[in-house]
Sequence to fold (216 residues):
Amino acid sequence: MCTVIVRTGHPLTLMGVRDEFADRPWEGPGEHWPDHPGVVGGLDLKAGGTWLAVDPTARRVAALLNGRGREAPETTKISRGGLPLLAVTTGDLPELDLTRYDPFHLVLADLTRTRLFSWDGERLGTTELPEGTSMIVNTGLDPANERTAAFQPRFAGDTDWRELITGTPSADPGALIIRHELPDGRVFATLSVTLLTLTPEGVTYEFTDMTADQDG
Fold:
């Protein structure tokens, strides 16, 4: 995941924009994990985890972004994709040996609170997100980020969030929906967008496969 937008309150609204190498295999949302019954999310077929998980019964969602900082040793490294599953199941970030994980940001939200856990490879920070609309990118809560500067005011306004994911993918660093063709021939692009609405009555889950009409 490269961008998470969350609007606190009732309803709580969260959008996750997943940017990834196009050749990394994945499956769309489902109950893919027998150890986490009832939890729904897209499945990363390479590592077995997910970038976003929701527990509809608990009205809880956890979304993962890659962070910046010191990477974990290759000999002990664990995939970060298991973190949303643990967080959405327990309602917290469990006590773990975080030195085994590469840097990350993890958004954990329910109808009572929204937290951002940020691990830079050395220190774990926890932030209670403020009321209103927050935009989290790979550098965290970063108003100087080009994508944040371009889009946070639009998400905070009256615009239908669905309208902001339309249009042609771009290589512009400030674009929300991207597509980069790299010199080695690989493609790094927005693969999917998830829009969740959580209320006391239930969860609305909207998933858009951004690769459906793209080549490569």
Observations:
- The chain has two helices and 13 strands.
- The helical segments are 83-90, 146-156.
- The longest strand covers residues 187-199.
- The chain has one domain: 3-209.
